[in-house]
Amino acid sequence: MENQQLQYQHTLKGEISLSGIGLHTGAHVNMTLKPALPGHGIKFQRVDLPGQPIVKADVDYVVETTRSTTLEHNGARVSTVEHIMAALAGTGVDNVLVELDGGEIPIMDGSSQAFIEAIEKTGLQNQDAKKVYYTIDTNISYYDEKKKVEMVAMPAVDYRITCLIDFNSPVLGTQHAKMKGIEEFRTEIAPCRTFCFLHELEYQLSLNLIKGGDINNAIVVVDKPVTEEELARLAKVFNRDQISVQKEGILNNIELRFPNEPARHKLLDVVGDLALIGYPINTHIIANRPGHASNVEFARKIKAYIKKNKHNKDLPVYDPNQPPVFDTARIERTLPHRYPMLLVDKIIELEEEKVVGIKNVTFNENFFQGHFPGNPVMPGVLQLEALAQVGGILALNRVPDPENYDTYFLKIDNCKFKQKVLPGDTMILKMELLSPIRRGIVEMRGTVFIGNKVATEADMIAQIIKTREGK
After folding, report:
1. 40, 199, 292, 337: which is the annotated catalytic residue?
2. Model-level pTM?
3. 206: helix, strand or coil
4. What band does 312 get if pLDDT is binned at 50, 70 and 90?
């Protein structure tokens, strides 16, 4: 994928349907990946449950990491999300709704390969919204003394990962794997299958924890002598006539896809778990002996850093050399306003919970003729109107056919005018959601920046109303 394409958000060109067995539940699951609007992110929907609840793919909603990564929110619980999350991150999919009729992502062959192939077959749709990458300005470290896990994120211009594993096993030994850029994921990392040791497998089978396990969806490392009786029992568990042990210590003569396939799969898990940060990141990750629990704790630490950094550097950056997310023509397709009441020139950022617009204030604005004509000042009410229009873009971006809806503002609170807006100023208009949209009611906080100073701020409540019938 070209760098220019990566500047924009992507969704799928069409729906993808897959089905398979859950590794831990053993239940057959149907999964459908559906395209989603810019800023939607990745969300899972349990269509088999009352109300069809949705859980966002976010590290804040991780509730279990014992054998896989499990999310739960709003009554929706989805486990083993790491392989599909890695596939979406590896192909650059930003916005998708994953519908499931069960509680676990199908294990497929134990890798991300089937998901990658389905995504590539369907293709990606370039969206009219910029993709914002977050960089790490300093080293972020995580260490688990008990498990001897060490992870660090270092500043870098792209996303790369170095992974090291050491299980003190004569069969597996010490391995390492590298991903020099996310573009390598599809060919070098995605085909690598999950693995476990025979003693772990036997223990989990004794507890009835792996109901969907099969020799074809995991590499089983045999790290101890195995009797013919034990092999016969495993054959019965996996519905096989016979199971054998390869001389390298891999059950049933499975050929590795790479000599270091286990290390590469651990790297795959790191990609999938860190995708739950919710932000595309540029950093060099070094992961020594990683696992789902440590990956998730590390992801939480990185997300906390980004959120704190965003708060400290909350001033939107306007680079006129960058193409807008929405130009004036695109804005007019969403908003009903026209000259002289269209007070937004372009949108430069559009996320699920935030939008940033630009208004260039010139001496030729019609309101300057009568508003303090000898000392022209932009009316505060029009600054609020400009914010409201930007907020309308954010609100209408959440509906499937925005041209058939309008936003009407119901209330303005905590309004403060801190600096005059004068001819020649460039207004940077930022609106952020204060709470999820419910029943069409949108609560937002708006800020007008002139340079690096706040000119105006206010809390606003609007309502989305259908005003036109769809075509």
Report:
1. 292
2. 0.65
3. helix
4. very low
